[in-house]
Write a structure and sequence with these properties.
By secondary structure, the chain is α+β, with helices and mostly antiparallel strands.
Length: about 650
Amino acid sequence: MCGIAGFIDSTSSIQRNYLENKAQAMSEKLVHRGPDDGGVWVDEKVGVALSHRRLSILDLSPEGHQPMTSMSGRYVIAYNGEVYNFPELRSQLEERNIAFRGHSDTEVILAAIEEWGLEDAVKQFVGMFAFALWDKREQQLHLVRDRLGIKPLYYGWINGSFVFGSELKALKAFPGFGNPVNRDALALMMRHNYIPAPHCIYKDIYKLQPGHCLTAKAHHLREPVIKSYWSAKSVVEKSIAEPFTGSDTEAVEQLDCLLRDAVGLRMVSDVPLGAFLSGGYDSTMVVAQMQAQSSQPVKTFSIGFHEQDHNEAHYAKKIARHLNTDHTELYVTPEDAMAVIPSLPTLYDEPFSDSSQIPTYLVSRMAKQYVTVSLSGDGGDELFGGYNRYFWGQRIWQKIGWMPTVMRSGLAGMIRSVSQQNWNRFFNVAGHVLPAKYRFSMAGDKLHKLAQVLTVESSGAFYQQLVSHWKNPTDLVLNSHEPITALTDQSQQASFTDFTQRMMYSDLVSYLPDDILTKVDRASMGVSLEARVPLIDHRVVEFAWRLPQHMKIRHGEGKWILRKVLDRYVPREMMERPKMGFGVPIGTWLRGPLKEWAEALLNETRLQQEGFFSPKPIRKKWLEHQSGKRDWHYYLWDVLMFQAWLEQQ
């Protein structure tokens, strides 16, 4: 895993050392992504520069050094990621009498592009990647991002120069950076707790969307061509039109084989390798598939919390014993977790407020003490119907959609009349007599969230409100206009008759890449750890979408087919328990040890002077939260993460 950065500076008569120094300055901001090696390549005639930081995983020799030039000399690449099927592609290329100098996947990528062309080559890559490719002959730069958005890639303009990089801190190192805060993107963050692609916290800077390629010509930098080479929308619509027609048994067998191959490919490494194990279905599936293909105990890592509402470590430990892994766990104190908070604005680079960023960083930091690569189970919920909202969202809408708005407003009021704490107490006491599908952790939070969305007028609006924090973010962020996103742009929506499918698709193209994968990438790369995510191998994604819904959600439970595959490796009784989130008790901390820190950031005078937020709604929620009347920690954490980020700018 690596970090890349570079630019095209169209200023005439640029000295070579000037270009190299600028590229080197950008590269140095990404040392955490690649501490083992670094390189810079420039062409002063055009004003182009590529830089690279390397975390050595495969081919640890100097032959893997980047930026790398193709055998013909036409292409130069700076590449971040892994193409797992490169041995197979290399064999195909060698059959065409193409020679190789070393054993890296980077060299195979270049040879494949030369032989088959950029788009046809990329379509054959199985992996996670973001790369910059300079074409000397055509005098143009290609930026390419993997299908699901596992690896990040920013681009934009600074004082007329075209710049790009794995993280914003590299772009900010470019001379003259002074791009102002994008208030419209800030409004999106207040709604989602992340900023969805292609938007960015800075004006004139963007994220390249998953499955896309950008081409910028040296003399037309303001007119790049952006093209999709893999479309989730097309995949989903084709899969629905041509569904899997086999039996349950055949589907389970095919998924087992696919997952085993996806996991096996990601176990290839020249450095120590392990896996995150939370004890949930997704991470357990990955570890089970790893252990089934390993002659040695797989190294596994778990984080535990003394607060039982947030702790799954004891489940993970039981599963590790059953699978006979080499297991390491760390119980985190509030002090350990809170010590991470000051580093979050630097770690995440642009405002990001999914509070599970904290345990994700902590488990990554622990794993890095033992391994350089760790597999993760992210993506299973989005593909196989794991989130509670997938199987109760549609039921609720079917039951309330016909109601007049006044009646739904009354129902919402009844839910709100009982505090979140009292709802939690009720479900904790009654949990042992309730059916499994009605056993929820933090039930009060979920019910109050439901109350907020009951008054909407369509299923699409119902889902948007369901996944929103601040419901009217443009009222909160001064002088902002909320841009369209994959959730609100009808041209980006696939055609569905099933509301659950629509929710799962929306998460696939927004929540998964912009929240989950962003969180994992920054947390792991922040400690120079490579995280691999086999469940979202694009072949698994395409197969999952071909499966009929009853193979994912059955009898009110999600992940039916994933559970059936896992039954082959782990007894079902070890897995039967309510789903838990991977979070920390931020709400409690904001009333206790974080209160002074938060109060300083949410000070009314400070908010007025900075001029980004309307202070009144923030102060209202802050005071209600402190009184214990309501739990507004999701809303407050969004504001706090922006405020903490702004303080460090």
